[in-house]
Amino acid sequence: MKQFFGIVLRDVRFRILMWIIGISALTLIVPPAFANLYGEAADREVLKETLANPAMVAMVGPVPEGTYTIAVMFSHEMLVFMAIVHGLFGVMIANAVSRKMEDQGLLEYVSSTGITRSNIFGTQLLIGILMNIALGAVIFTGLVVMDIESFGLEGSMLYALGTALFGLLFYMVTLVLAQLLPSSDWSFGIALSLLLLFYLGRAITDVVNTDYSVIFPYHWLSRIEPFGVNDFVWLSPFLIIAVFAWLAWFLFAKRDLDDAYITLDFKNKTRRIGSYPRLQLTGMKVLITSWLAGMLLIGLSYGSIFGELDTFINENQFLAQAMESESGMDPILQFLSTLMMVTAVVGIIPALMVSARILREEKSERLEMLVSADISRGRMLLTHGIFGVVTGALGLVLAVIGMYAASIGVEDIGVTIGEYMLTALNYTAAVVLFTGLSMLLIGISKKLHTLIWVYYLYSFFVNYLGLIIGLDDAWRIVTPFHFLAEMPAEEMDWIAWAAITAIGIALGIAGAALFKQRDIG
Amino acid sequence: MSILELKNTTKTFGDTIAAHEVSFHIEKGEIFGFIGPNGAGKSTTIRMIIGALTPDSGEIFVDDQPISKDPHYKNKLTYVPGDVNLWGNLTGDEVINFFMKTRGYTNTDRKDELIEKFRLDPKKKCKAYSKGNRQKVALISAFLSNADLLIFDEPTTGLDPLMERSFHEEVIRAKNEGKSILLSSHILSEVEKLADRIAIIRDGQIIETGQLADLRHITRIEYVVQAKGDLETLKSLPFVHEFTQDHDSTHILVDNDKAPEFLEALHPLQPMQLETRPPRLEDIFMRYYEDRSDQS
């Protein structure tokens, strides 16, 4: 066990370290920033008021009662959202040390050397527990050491513990899925879907009635209310982690290696795959359809809170008038545009994943075979770029259809389906730009491509933080969202749209041209 | 007429020179063996030929046309990598069909014949295939093609001896159809069986090219002998190189072209048992180094 633990840890320690550094940095840069921006209690109260609108509640959770101190503000605005990142950390590492190792034949190999099932499972368990403890410890220490006003020991402890437990919960869920499903692609895909579906489910129930939210682990964190109520009781639902741990062990001990409880063996007849685009489409079928379904779901869930938005505005006529006089815009349209932009930012992810799929061909050395079969490299990359853009655009269309369909009964939203479609078209420009940049980086080098995700994360955070704390718009100047019209509240800006689309296309073509020249493999 | 010619092609990765002024050519209808130990530069050279890598200097010609000037030279060749990776969710059949379709060949009878010959279960998903089975899929696709030049990088590493024989038969069949074959391997005996000419590469440089018979002078044969007389007397002969004894037999390395002289000298010592071992790649390299240090 000791040796096995050692070797597995050595295999994943770099990744774990990167995640810990990334998550704690992301968490710990926020409190000083908030202390800076919102040092005045009066400012925080104003912010608190605006965060009480349903669009914001859907994003960050219900507004806690009591004084809105810097610490309370921090935990309210960060907790639910950071939980996704903590969950993702758990899912990725759990999958790497379980089903992925099994798929690669490593578990079989170590089993042959006398390492038992309980050694293997013990190692998987221990890594999950230790990495989350380590992350929690870093965050706790960081919060305490910074010693910012209103950040108490108890609250810091609860914030760190809550997020660590959340990460561990999804680590354990992934371990269970690793036993149930036949490959690491499946266990990763389903675990990720659960993580996101729970977030969306909570978004709806938080707006409609928080009583229903208790079935979603995200809400347990909201209920703890670190730095405010500090309700330790809401740590107790996390005891379910023990059940999942037992279940994973039970399922693992009882099955053969490389076997699964749910086999998804579709006995298809031979498909006719006669071209590179067909080949890729076949390979990305699951990826594309699940993203499209996800985008539709995002649209439906946001659409379903528009009714609440309407009621909220009717009940808060004063706030509504204040907003309207400040921006000269219908507040409901403003909220809608905010959610639309969040949707657009999320909708870029599938486009990037699809365009980057060609790197998978390169890493597995299949690209060389394809190249030797006289399939043009430039055309292969263009295929991925076009598929990426089409997937991204379709995702946006489905999201706006979802919004439209779910809010059809709400009277005060005067947005027609045509305007919704135009909004989708508007944000397609951002999809084109990101995909084009992704292609350019692929054309330069396969290692450099990671930069697109750095750029994406940057864009994500400045937009997200821009929304919740009113970050200065200057931060967004290097992202397309600074230039594109915030539809449907603003009028479509065709010039910005055309310019960004054209830049994206140019970058993509340049990428394809470079890709033809560079060494592969 | 040569189907493929490399002129002083060089490729460096950072500080390592993976291929240094590599030159050789392959005639039409010829099987060309390309041998060298792992990491000698065989794959780098092949990957320059298929266009995955661009040479730093030098030129590659296919059908006497520089490949940099002919964007579609690749429809004259087909390539099987040493470590074949396929699309896990596609069946073997679907992969073979894909390559047939993209390269425009249609002979399905021949496909069925090859699948039968290599005993491939084409209905299985590629992720369920062993290394050998993945290799079979790529080999079948290659033998189906009507390309003039077939390039195989370590083609038999995952195949069992029976399949290895099927592979050899197909290589000879391709040759008889007038195709040229580039066969890279680190196993000399395999190349020896098939190749008309060979090139030996080491540390990125070609150290010998020619017909195997011409290269006999650099190979040595190992004799394992048991005799009544004292074998020690052979030790001083000029064509005897290594002389080692284990518990009951004596291992002697003898220049390949001096076999008659050696047997003549051995005869009076009343040999009881005599066994020969074919020349090994390592021996060639040993010999090559000795020759080089003699010259310097």
Automatic annotation (TrEMBL), chain A:
The keyword Transmembrane helix applies. The chain crosses the membrane at residues 12-34, 78-97, 125-145, 157-178, 185-204, 232-252, 286-305, 332-359, 380-404, 424-444, 451-471, 494-515. Keywords: Membrane, Transmembrane, Transmembrane helix. The keyword Zinc does not apply. This is ABC transporter. It comes from Salinicoccus halodurans. The lineage of its organism: Bacteria, Bacillati, Bacillota, Bacilli, Bacillales.
Automatic annotation (TrEMBL), chain B:
The keyword ATP-binding applies. One of its GO terms (molecular function) is ATP binding. SUPFAM superfamilies: P-loop containing nucleoside triphosphate hydrolases (SSF52540). Coiled coil: none annotated. Pfam families: ABC_tran. It comes from the Bacteria. Keywords: ATP-binding, Nucleotide-binding, Transport. Residues 4-228 form the ABC transporter domain. InterPro entries: AAA+_ATPase, ABC_transporter-like_ATP-bd, ABC_transporter-like_CS, ABC_transporter_ATP-binding, P-loop_NTPase. Belongs to the ABC transporter superfamily. PANTHER family: ABC TRANSPORTER ATP-BINDING PROTEIN (PTHR42711), ABC TRANSPORTER ATP-BINDING PROTEIN NATA (PTHR42711:SF5). This is ABC transporter ATP-binding protein. It comes from Salinicoccus halodurans.
